[in-house]
Amino acid sequence: MRARILFATLTGNNEDVADVIIAEFQRLGVETIKEDITNVEALDLNPTTQDILVTVVYTFDLGTLADEAIDFYEDLPDVDLAGVVYGVAGSGDVYYGQDYGTAVDILEQQFTKTQGIQGAPGVKVNLRPDAQATIELEQFTQALVKQAQRI
């Protein structure tokens, strides 16, 4: 089984989130690839190159998607991810109240247009992964793997 993790980060928090997910994938014996989302064209995604696709994006400003992920986001509805399990995680800051972690919601909504299979509800991390967020990210990763095993 192969997982591809795409991340966007300014502060390093989302790379930390991605690394927690990767560590759990590796513990579960899943081959993983980690890439900066700016280096990936959504239109080049091929369902045969990964079983699981995870995006880790941060929420910017007042609830907007990270600039690094906008091109990916805009092209995503034109991608056929039939048979691919997807999941979205990302950091935010609870200081922003209702705008906290909205990038996760925004990207999850866009993934519904790809025919991919949502493997787990999105995970929002306040700033960087603490002990509780690490547990949630590990459970998220386990759910993705279980869903991919069903296919």
From TrEMBL:
UniProt name for this protein: Flavodoxin
Pfam families: Flavodoxin_1
Signal peptide range in chain numbering: none
UniProt keyword annotations, A-Z: Electron transport, Flavoprotein, FMN, Transport
Cofactor requirements of the protein: FMN
The UniProt record lists the keyword DNA damage: no
Domain Flavodoxin-like: 3-145
The keyword Electron transport is assigned to this record: yes
GO molecular function, a single term: FMN binding
Role of this protein: Low-potential electron donor to a number of redox enzymes.
SUPFAM superfamilies assigned to the protein according to its UniProt record, in alphabetical order: Flavoproteins
Gene3D superfamilies: 3.40.50.360
Family listed: Belongs to the flavodoxin family.
